[in-house]
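G., the chain you wanted modeled:
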Amino acid sequence: MQLILWRHAEAEDIAPDHSDANRRLTERGRKQARSMAGWLNEHLPAHTHILASPAVRTRQTAEALGRPFEIDTRLFTDTSVSDHLAACGWQHAQDERTVLIVGHQPTLGQLAAQLMCGQPLPWSVKKGAIWWLAHEGARQPARLICMLDSKTL
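Predicted structure as C-alpha cells:
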C-alpha cells in the first residue's frame, strides 16, 4: 500500500463565522494547492482513493486535484491517529492500493511517525506539503518515498 499524507494549504486564521471547520484557503493557499495538485496529478496512479477531512480548507485543497474524493469524518481536526488508520484501511496494507489523505496537523505528523517509528511522535507536516509513504510488510515500518512542499516544486 502507498499512503500520501497531504496537509491542507495555507488557510485563513479565522473563518467568517469564527468556526475552525469553515476556515477557507487564502490566495497563497490556493496557489500552494494548485502547485501540489499539478505535481500529484503527474505522479498519482489513476485509481488513487482520495479522502479529505470535512473542513472547508481540506476540501478546497483536494478540489485542486480535479479528481473525485470522499469526505471522511474520521479525518477531522479532532480525530486520532487510529481514526486515520481506519479511514485509509491500513490494516489491509498488503495490497497495491494508493490512498491520499488530505488532512490536518498535528495528526498527519503523528500518523507518519506512527507508521515509520511505531509511535505517534510530534512530527510536523508543512502547510500544503505531502509525505508519500510505502508499506511493504506487516512487521515492517512504512518507508518514506517522497516529501515535498510547494516551495520545492
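Strands lie at 2-7, 49-52, 70-71, 98-103, 130-134, 143-148.

Shout if anything looks off.
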